[in-house]
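User: Please run a holo structure prediction.
Assistant: Happy to. Please share the sequence and the ligand.
User: Here you go; the ligand is coenzyme A.
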Amino acid sequence: MSNAFEQAYRRSLEDPEGFWGDVAEDVRWYKKWDKVFDDSNKPFNRWFVGAEVNTCFNALDRHVEEGRADQLALIYDSPVTGNTVRKFTYRELRDEVAKFAGVLKAHGVEKGDRVILYMPMVPEAAMAMLACARLGAIHSVVFGGFASNELAVRIDDAKPKIIVAASCGIEVGRVIEYMPLLNGAIDLAKHKPDHCIILGRPEAKAALLDGRDVDWAEAMKSAEPADCVPVAATDPLYILYTSGTTGEPKGVVRDNGGHLVALKWTMKNIYDADPGDVYWAASDVGWVVGHSYIVYAPLFHGCTTVLFEGKPVGTPDAGVFWRVISDHKVKILFTAPTAFRAIKRDDPDGALMKNYDLSHFKYLFLAGERTDPDTLHWAEEKVGVPVIDHWWQTETGWSIAANCVGLHKYPVKPGSPTKAAPGFDVRILGPDGEAVPTGETGAICIKLPLPPSCLPTLWNADDRFVTSYLSDFDGYYNTSDAGFIDEDGYLYIMGRTDDIINVAGHRLSTGGMEEVLANHPDVAECAVIGVADDLKGQLPLGFLVLKAGVIKDHREVVAEVVTMVRDRIGPVAAFRQAIIVDRLPKTRSGKILRSTMQKIADNEEFKLPATIDDPVILDEIREALEGVGYAGVRNS
Ligand code: COA
Ligand code: AMP
């Protein structure tokens, strides 16, 4: 007999409308759909056409109405601000959000308007997101580790009426003032917001601009609470910009209805969470994991979500995750493998764990990058709970492959996020578009249609949506990850097929970094690759060919390009190293052989590309890499 996972999976593919239509009964709608799924305007498919809903109502108000008013909705735990803890019940969070929605409304925000949020990990970030959802406005959160230029690009694309920001963010031992970054971005951008609402934090005073800036606390004093505004299920809830293959980010659009239906379903079926459970996603609201699993899904499901402002190590030590789990009785923790590699490095025996009561802790979920078997085994052994790798993308909003423990727990195979999740018909295709045999690596694709919550399009860029995802293989969404499926149906994700790299679980474009390096006056040509790193998974490494006649000290040029990437993209790019070489290896048609360079750097085997222009250059690259400790030198 088939298990609950197999039954759900089969039905989700054979009868997607029946499957998701039933799941959708769990949501509170103002008006039910005319059609569960509409593909009349291919490839721009839509879920729950004709339905009306409000995301914030389903996250907060419904729980207040249904008996959870006094249950904790959100716990803020901030070791970087002297161990501040603030707790909000569902009623308190609903009231704060309704008031802040009133502030936005008083400043002209209406359904369909965009609001950019440039916020650190404070409860007000979640409140601002939910307040936008309450009004039917579209939020776009920009991660605090991005510099002014990145913020400016997003301002020009989203054209927000309002920007909500804080006076500062806090990194380990360092306060990051946001006002200079915000002002710099608004100066750079062509589009200007009507107002900025600034949350003052005690760690940095914000110099507010007369006429433009509004103080959050002042505005809240006189705010009239705003009600939930019904929106079409197909209306956008948010835009989240993510790295594309150029410096221009892609604005992933998320709809209200499909997102709500799918994410609520994942809480029990993937994470085995029940209403009332404490769920902690140790990520950042600026990333998709933060949107889906710090803010929306746990609240849709009536859980208590933990919003943590700190790092896995250094705030104050590698025991902080155990302290938070113990203090707040966390049942499920979701984070990136890099966080566990950092903990393992600082506390290899897990000695700090012994100081805490972890009896409520039941599952550790990891995503954002591949979970390496060492980290998996260490976590399994030390923590003693199931460690579940799951694979997903900003574009989907939830996991494409997972061990859906709420349905059926499969044995864990190291290196695999287990099986495709219900709704995702995952196929491995060769360059000819045909399925490759079991066990062989190819492009990981999803046969259309994509399930609810996946991007219906890119903001202002329908054509780019089609060319980026749907054009390579007819009838399929190309994930741009490569991998294989084994004889038991387990999926293995082997890496990206484009120039995206994953640095400490953060998705970055090497193409975007190259655009910055190419702007240095002494640089003739450049390439950036991701090289393996024990802690962060990957780190960017630049190669520079200097213009003829440059006599400057090479170290000076390298220091300058490092500063340029930090200033233009942000510290999160973690770009710290570049090598100056005489020439770059290319194909005869002039394409730089980045993936061959990466394989040399990581000391992996590679086939000499048949179209290489001059193989001798690869020896020069190897020598240069050896000179800075790559290409096997470190391990020898
Ligand atoms: N605002 C401003 N700066 C930020 C920032 C933010 N929100 N987030 C990171 N930065 C800065 C860091 O301070 C660091 O600056 P530095 O170069 O001056 O040291 C730089 O960006 C790189 O940050 P990061 O790659 O995060 O490295 P780190 O050394 O600070 O921390 C880890 C390393 C592994 C502890 C950390 O990356 C981590 O916790 N990763 C988990 C990632 C995660 O949750 N990903 C989400 C997907 S689930
Ligand atoms: P992001 O859009 O930031 O979530 O990044 C998505 C990319 O991160 C994917 O396309 C993968 O390359 C990588 N990724 C995310 N989760 C995993 C995982 N569990 N295993 C391997 N790679 C992953």
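Residues 242, 288, 367-370, 389-394, 417, 479, 481, 493, 496, 502, 507 surround adenosine monophosphate (ligand 2) (CB under 6 Å).
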